[in-house]
Structure formats: structure tokens, C-alpha cells
Amino acid sequence: MTHGHLWDRLAEAKSHLAPVQSKYRVLFEDPTQPDEPAKVLVPDPNWMAAALAGNVLPPIDTYLRDRDVPDGQPKEHPYAKPIGPMTEEEAIEYLIQKDIPPQVWRDYKGNRSVMKIVPVELIPSDRSFRNAWKINQEMELAA
Amino acid sequence: MSTLNVSNISDGTDTVETGYVVNGSAKAHVNFDGTSIAIRTGSLNIASVTDNSTGKYTPNFTSSFNDAPSATGGMTIANYPGVMRVNPSTGTCQVFTATSYSGAAYIDGTDTSIQCCGDLA
Question: How many pairs of residues across A and B have Cβ atoms under 8 Å apart?
Fold first, then answer.
């Protein structure tokens, strides 16, 4: 049985799955752009619904391989066999690998924290100093 | 899921080739509040939106485009006269909302939307 194109599965999923607003956000700083403020990744509610339901999204490694495919060349992820349901936490990990540059989550070797998964309540609602946001480096240490 | 295979669609008066409908529809669209980055629920083919800084956002596509989308559009509503610029690529789309094109001060729009047309990968 064919599983079709990813876009068709997304459209089909949207037609019958209730959107899910994630309770998480991903804060990250790009170590290659130290003067830039911290960025906030927000999962899309329809994407999250598809991730939790399963049988819509392709394996994450297809996206990672497709990063090396030049524009205009056939890509693997639209036609890959979809994976099963994920938990919300697994979906966030998937999204980090898909939508955050590898120099943040894979290649960074420094001792400054450049990425944190946080509850949405911890994102400041006051954006007066948005362009100065940095990730808080204080952390609780075990006694 | 069943598939309807037809060459043309007609309302009884006007007839159009199905390809115009399939290829002419937006392949990705999203609407979000630029002040809180709350993504509204009507989106399609969007995995996430990254809030980069004031007035700078990156919607990330779930299903990539083959080349940069051939046509993009957007709109934002802010408390100031504003402009919007969209730089599309195959997997993402850079969105900027600002007070003007030259010497722009970036601003957060409360109601920011984009749509992208083109061929998918």
C-alpha cells in the first residue's frame, strides 16, 4: 500500500485531527551568531497533532540527509514511509533536529548552555527588551 | 483516503484544468501573533515558527519546496504603518515586519500571515 506524498498526508491529517498547542518552547542561541539574541522555536499545532497521531511524518533522518541535497534535486523526506505516534517530548526532540541548526544541538562543544526546552510559561510576555534576550546560565546544582 | 482523478473541473459554465487548481493552491500558510508567537490553528505544512527577534520570524515547512517557492505573500497588522518582507527558500521562509523598507525599525505585528505557492520536493 502506498503512503503517498507527505503534503497529502498533512492535508488529510489537518482535516480530521484537532490541533494541539504544545506546552513547550525551545530556547536557543546560535553560537555562530553570538551577537544575536536568543531565539524561540514554537511548534505548530497542526504539526504537533500529526506527530502525536502518527503515520504522517517521515523519519527524522530523512530530513537530515536531505540537508545535503541541492535545491531542485529529488528529496527523500516527502516520500519516506511515515513513522508511528510520538510523545510530545519525542516530538520536540524531532523538531529540534529538523528546525534548529546542527551547530546548536549537535556540534556545539562550549560550556555555555545554548539550548533549553522550557514550559511556555517561562517565555517572557514582555517584549520590550526582546533583542537582548539571552539564555539564563544559572542552574540548580545537586547538593 | 480516496483520490479523484479528473482532468477538468467545471461549475456548469466555466471549466478549468485540474492542474491549475492543484498547482495553484498555496502549499504552505500560517498565521501567528508576532507579539507572543502564538500560532493560530489554520496553518498547513508548517512544522514550527522560530521567533528570531523583534519583527523577525522563520516559519519552517514540513514538506519542503523543490526550489524556493515561486510566489509568496504576507500581511501583518501592527500599531504602526508597516511593511513586510518575505525571503523564501526550500525549507524555511524568513519573514521581516518593519516600519519601512529603508532604515527600518523592526516591529512585532499582532496578526502576521504568510502563504507560499510553488512546486513541492
Answer: 103
